[in-house]
Design a protein that fits this description.
The complex is a heterotrimer of chains A (328), B (404) and C (216). Chain A is mainly α and 328 residues long. Helices cover 38% and strands 5% of the residues of chain A. Among the domains of chain A are: 86-141, no CATH class; 154-256, Double Stranded RNA Binding Domain (2-Layer Sandwich), CATH 3.30.160.20; 259-282 and 290-324. Chain A has helices at 2-27, 32-40, 80-83, 117-121, 130-140, 154-158, 198-208, 229-246, 271-280, 294-305, 310-324, and strands at 164-166, 185-190, 212-213, 218-223. Chain A has a 4-stranded antiparallel beta sheet with strand order 1-2-4-3. In chain A, α10 (294-305) packs antiparallel against α11 (310-324). In chain A, 9% of the residues are buried. In chain B, α6 (109-119) runs parallel beside α7 (140-153), α9 packs antiparallel against α10 and α10 packs antiparallel against α11. The two termini of chain B are 29 Å apart. With 216 residues, chain C is mainly alpha-helical. Chain C has helices spanning 6-14, 42-45, 65-74, 80-104, 116-126, 151-167, 175-187, 192-206; strands at residues 131-138, 141-148. In chain C, a hairpin with a 2-residue loop joins β1 (131-138) and β2 (141-148). The chains are: A mainly alpha (328), B alpha/beta (404), C mainly alpha (216). The B-C interface holds B 10-11, 14-15, 17-18, 21-22, 24-28, 30-32, 34-36, 38-39, 42, 45, 95, 98-101, 372-374, 376-377, 379, 382, 385-386, 402-404 and C 1, 3, 60-62, 87-88, 91-93, 95-97, 99-103, 105, 108-118, 122, 177, 180-181, 184-185, 187-190.
Chain lengths: 328, 404, 216
């Protein structure tokens, strides 16, 4: 009875031990020491009716030893374009710069370049170093023609080529290489490059409307109604040509333009001239009539066209005094 | 007028209220000791005004020259009464004249410039129009008053409208015109103007004995025969208020003819002239619509006399921002204020700019105020403060100084 | 006419420092009005904390302590600009009447004060009451007990009486005109405000027997 009891107890203790070993195995999978301890206990074998399946041992993953970063082996005078030949996201081991980037708490240094997502996220221009560009320019030089002589400065080439054509090419990652905005064509030129008479200029400006910038004197035609760039360019040039030639056509109804339709005040057409002549020729009997001076006409036109300011009004006063022969 | 009368009533009330305090003030000996250091100059209140460095004895504007710039000259009381009894000086200035017991005007360069032009003008040529312009409160009206004084002394017949916008903005009464269809008469204003004209020119009219050139028929029974004197014409207009507007028109056309014939010379002075070219007035017609100024019968004669088709005359006009209404007041320049129509009507005119005080004028004015006991706070540097606060604008200075 | 020099007026401003609930500790100095005041040694002031200047305090010629005080009493519904206009009009009217009087009389021109601020001070000093009647209940009976006034309160009452007298007017009379007359009257020791003050003093005098109720 007592022996039975003792065996039972022993069995319990063993079971407990085995449980402890098992849990130990799971928890600390790479400690082999304990494993051997279990094997050493084999001499106290107990009856094991249901054999516990031997658990499959985990395969050990063999890792190569981490190489030291490539930067440590780089010579000072290496060819950088060979290291970083194209656009590529940042790689810490290839860039021999002590970069730091990122946010830390106050006072701490910014994270280093290793495993630094902040550095990888941002685009870099390490492939566009000046020597790389120089190298590439050198490479494509054989495909270029020399710059025409006599067109060295902007002022020089603006004269034979007054029209500036502005288009945009887009480089992007889509299945199609076409970009809808690439068809847009804008042509600009100075109004002073076109030759007009007074009527044509007025009419041209009215036709052109807000395509003309009053302050800079630049005409801008922009076309995007056709699907192809070539078509748009042709259309813009057509617009320019058509407006220019149409402006020289005088329609019969243009003769009915009244004073209210005038865009600028003209002394010749206005009451100012009649009043001035009336005063100058007061009581005049002879055939010849005094006409108001050109300076006076100019001052009145300036006063009304440019708006009133101290200068214009002083000028006007001076001219009036001169014309009316009032003592100055 | 009404406002002015009310002011007089108030002031007279104040002055009747005062004499009983005189004794008390005499009793107040301590207070009296304190008041001696109030103003530096003491002797200027005696009837013959003392010539200080800021005053000039040359009371004839025709004789004033550059030497007298920034100096004050006194308009004699009778002349002031003759010229300005019906208006012509700003209300505040009238008040100041009453308080200071003398009508003093400062000789300023715009007025001198105008006088120079007028004196040297060839009167056989068409009438020259001078347009005074400037910001609010710079003294356009007082410049005009100065010129008017000259005109009154030099035998000009004065055709003076003290403030034209009054007709458009607050007429006494508006009635449909009997003679012109669709036009509006301002009988009371016209009569008031005739009274003003008579007051200014009665002496000269009597001396010149100007006659009407044609017969004016007012109604079946009333008419003014050709050859009647202008005084009769004016008096008819005053007596028969109904026909005052037409009388004004007749009078002005007569004056124009007489001047062109060389029988008299005329000085036209219209303050707030741009009111004639304002798009609308505050007068309503029969169909409850605002009338434009050219539908008022008074407008036509005054536009007529400011055109260039007559001689022996001079027109001094002023354009003013406050003659306009809200929305038309963004600039004080003559072309803007006159508008297209007004500019075409006046062109070619001589613009004369009236500006703020110069340093010299400012100091002179401060001295004048001190002399008249008007400024009693004379801490060191008070002129500087006033100069900066007022920007040397005459009206602003006047308003600032009143509480000191 | 009791003329009191400006020094008493300065107490109007310094009274503030005795306030119990002041936001400033007592060692804070008052701000100095004049830029180049020679009274104050700059070294003394350099390490003393100074109270923030009130925003209506100014160095200009238009500023007066008493004027400012009166301005605030005239103000209705916070419309300070109107009050300023009214007070300026008042002072203008006073000045006009005084100058017109100066021009009227021939002799003793020195007796006419033209400085409006001095007239205002005189008027207020003349109409300041010394005592006030206060209702105190003793043994079921209410007694009108004369009580001395603080300086501040007396200034307040003087200005309030002047204003009340000015506001009691015909609709057609403008406040500046009426106020100007009241101030001129008071400055010369007559008028309704002075009468009111005298009446109050007389009543206090007749109730002097009750004076002990103030503390018993």
């Amino acid at each position: 009875m007592a022996a039975n009891l003792a065996r039972l107890l022993e069995c319990n203790i063993r079971c407990n031990n085995a449980a402890a070993v098992q849990s130990g195995w799971r928890l600390f999978s790479n400690q082999r020491q304990q494993q051997t301890e279990v094997e050493d206990d084999e001499e106290f074998r107990v009856l094991n009716l249901r054999t516990i399946k031997q658990q499959a041992r985990r395969r050990e993953i063999k890792k190569n030893a981490v190489q030291p970063p490539r930067t440590s082996r780089m010579p000072v005078d290496q060819d950088w374009t060979a290291v970083w030949s194209g656009p590529r996201s940042f790689h810490p081991a290839s860039v021999p710069l002590p970069l730091r980037q990122g946010y830390t708490e106050r006072g701490a240094a910014a994270p280093s370049k290793y495993a630094n997502a902040e550095l990888m996220k941002i685009p870099n221009f390490l492939h566009l170093t000046p020597p790389a560009i120089r190298q590439q320019c050198e490479a494509i030089k054989k495909f270029c023609t020399p710059w025409p002589k006599g067109l060295e400065t902007e002022a020089k080439w603006k004269r034979p080529f007054p029209i500036e054509v502005i288009t945009t090419d887009y480089c992007h990652s889509l299945p199609t290489i076409r970009h809808p905005e690439a068809r847009r064509v804008t042509i600009t030129l100075k109004l002073s490059d076109l030759k007009f008479d007074a009527h044509a200029k007025d009419k041209f400006l009215r036709l052109v409307g807000e395509r003309y910038n009053q302050e800079t004197g630049v005409l801008t035609f922009s076309a995007d109604r056709c699907p192809m760039r070539k078509q748009n360019y042709d259309y813009a040039m057509y617009l320019l040509t058509a407006c220019y030639h149409e402006s020289f056509v005088t329609e019969p109804w243009e003769a009915t333009k009244s004073e209210a339709d005038m865009e600028v005040y003209q002394f010749e057409r206005n009451q100012a001239k009649r009043s001035a002549e009336g005063i100058l020729n007061w009581n005049a009997t002879g055939e010849q009539k005094d006409a108001p001076s050109a300076n006076y006409a100019k001052s009145v036109e300036a006063l009304i066209n440019e708006g009133e300011n101290e200068y214009n009004i002083a000028k006007y006063k001076e001219e009036v005094l001169k014309m009316l022969k009032i003592a100055i | 007028m009404k406002m002015l009368r009310k002011q007089f009533v108030n002031l007279s009330r104040v002055s009747t209220h005062l004499p009983r305090n005189v004794l008390a003030s005499r009793a107040a000996s301590r207070g009296a000791e304190m008041s001696t250091n109030v103003a530096p100059a003491e002797t200027a209140t005696a009837p013959p005004p003392v010539i200080n460095e800021f005053r000039t004895g040359v009371t004839n504007p025709g004789e004033q020259s550059e030497l007298h710039v920034a100096k004050f000259y006194t308009i004699p009381i009778e002349e002031k009464k003759q010229i300005f009894s019906g208006g012509g000086l700003p209300k505040q200035y009238e008040k100041q004249i009453k308080t200071f017991t003398e009508a003093c005007l400062m000789v300023r360069s715009p007025a001198l410039e105008l006088l120079h032009y007028i004196k040297n003008a060839d009167l056989t040529k068409p009438a020259v129009r001078y347009v005074l312009y400037g910001d609010n409160g710079v003294g356009k009206t007082l410049t005009m008053a100065h010129v008017l004084h000259y005109g009154a002394l030099n035998d000009f017949l004065l055709v003076h409208v003290p403030w034209a916008p009054n007709w458009m903005k607050r007429p006494k009464e508006a009635a449909n015109s009997a003679s012109q269809e669709g036009f509006i008469d301002l009988p009371f204003d016209a009569a008031a103007w005739l009274i003003h004209f008579k007051a200014q020119n009665s002496k000269l009219l009597q001396r010149l004995q100007l006659k009407t050139s044609k017969e004016y028929v007012w109604s079946k029974r009333e008419s003014t025969p050709a050859g009647a004197t202008l005084i009769e014409l004016v008096e008819h207009g005053i007596a028969r208020i109904k026909y005052a507007s037409e009388t004004t028109a007749a009078l002005i056309s007569e004056l124009k003819q007489l001047a062109t014939a060389g029988q008299c010379k005329i000085m036209v002075a219209i303050d707030g002239y741009n009111a004639f070219f304002h798009p609308i007035t505050r007068i309503f017609s029969d169909n409850k619509q605002r009338v434009s100024p050219d539908r008022i019968t008074l407008t036509q004669p005054f536009l007529d006399i400011t055109s260039y088709d007559w001689t022996n005359g001079v027109c001094v006009l002023s354009v003013d921002k406050i003659a306009m209404t809200e929305g038309y007041m963004s600039s004080y320049m003559p072309r803007y204020l006159l508008g297209k129509e007004g500019f075409e009507h006046l062109d070619p005119f001589v613009p004369v700019h009236v500006g703020n005080y110069t340093d010299k004028e400012f100091i002179s004015y401060i001295n004048y105020y001190l002399d008249r006991h008007w400024i009693s706070k004379t801490q060191p540097g008070f002129e500087e403060q006033l100069k900066f606060l007022s920007n040397m604008n005459p009206y602003t200075l006047m308003r600032l100084v009143r509480g000191l | 006419m009791g003329f009191v020099p400006y020094t008493t007026l300065s107490s109007l401003r310094t009274l503030k420092c005795c306030r119990l609930m002041s936001m400033y500790p007592p060692h804070f100095a008052e701000p100095i009005l004049k830029k180049d005041s020679e009274i104050i040694n700059k070294k003394d002031v350099s390490h003393v904390p100074i109270k923030a200047a009130p925003n209506d305090l100014s160095d200009s010629i238009f500023y007066g302590v008493l004027k400012n005080k009166l301005l605030k009493y005239i103000t209705k519904k916070g419309n300070g600009s109107l009050a300023k206009q009214l007070l300026t009009d008042t002072l203008e009217t006073i000045k006009r009447t005084q100058i017109e009087r100066l021009n009227l009389i021939n002799a003793e021109k020195e007796n006419v004060i033209i400085d409006t601020e001095r007239i205002l001070v005189n008027a207020i000093e003349n109409s300041r009451p010394l005592l006030q009647l206060s209702e105190i209940k003793r043994g079921g009976v209410k007694y009108q007990v004369p009580i001395p006034l603080t300086e501040k309160k007396s200034y307040f009452l003087a200005m309030k009486w002047l204003l009340d007298a000015a506001r009691e007017k015909d609709r057609k009379v403008h406040l500046p005109d009426k106020l100007a007359w009241e101030i001129l009257d008071a400055a010369h020791g007559q008028g309704r405000v002075i009468k009111k003050k005298d009446d109050l003093h007389r009543q206090c005098e007749s109730n002097r027997a009750y004076a002990h109720y103030r503390w018993s």
